[in-house]
Amino acid sequence: MRIIEEPHISLTRPFYLPEHQIAGFVCELESCLRGLDPLAVGLERISTYVNEKQDRGFVAVDVGYGGESVRRVLDRVDHLMVRFGQRGFFRTPRFHISLLSVDLALIGGEMSKIGAALGAAMNEEIAHLAAMQIDEVECVFGNKKFGISLGAE
User: Fold this and answer.
1) Burial zone of 103 (CB within 10 Å; 0-12 exposed, 13-18 middle, 19+ buried)
2) CB 73 within 8 A of CB 39
3) Are 19 and 119 a contacting pair, CB within 8 Å?
4) Based on the number of CB atoms within 10 Å of its own CB, is 90 exposed (0-12), middle (13-18) or buried (19 or more)?
5) Are 39 and 150 in contact (CB under 8 A)?
6) Fewer Cβ within 10 Å of end Cβ, the chain: N or C?
């Protein structure tokens, strides 16, 4: 089990862009996010997720309050992804912040047991968390990170 160093809410599936397209993508992402205010989200409960390749599991905190605001950002990001020939995000996304990553081969694929054990202990603590503000969208390509501020003109 590995703690995720930079918890985040994903808005895309993993994807590849050729080096010469990255700057243009980031510039268009800045443009399509312009005018959006920072987001306030509240956390709801512990859940588990498995990636599309079925080889990694995640223990996460679901977004409750503010999910509709995250969806508005996702809609803009999805349009950009399609313009760059990439797949959009999941049709019915469940927004969450992953906290732990698990190699499923090491645990025999039993994510539900891990989620149940951790969930019971952590759900009570999550209820005490206040809403968090998200004021930046981060775009990562390999070891390159680009931060785009929300609310900036």
Assistant:
1) exposed
2) yes
3) no
4) exposed
5) yes
6) C
User: Strand, helix or coil at 88?
Assistant: coil
Contact 55/104 with Cβ under 8 angstroms? yes
Q: Where are the alpha helices (DSSP H) in the chain?
A: 19-33, 67-83, 104-107, 111-126
Q: Give the model confidence (pLDDT) of 32-67 as tens digits.
A: 999 999 999 998 888 888 899 988 988 888 999 999
> What is the sign of the dihedral through the CA atoms of 66, 69, 71 and 77?
negative
* Spatial contact of 62 and 43, defined as CB atoms under 8 Å apart: yes
Query: How far, in Å, CA of 89 to CA of 67, rounded?
Result: 15
User: From residue 153, how far is each of 33, 52, 125 by CA, in Å?
Assistant: 10, 36, 37
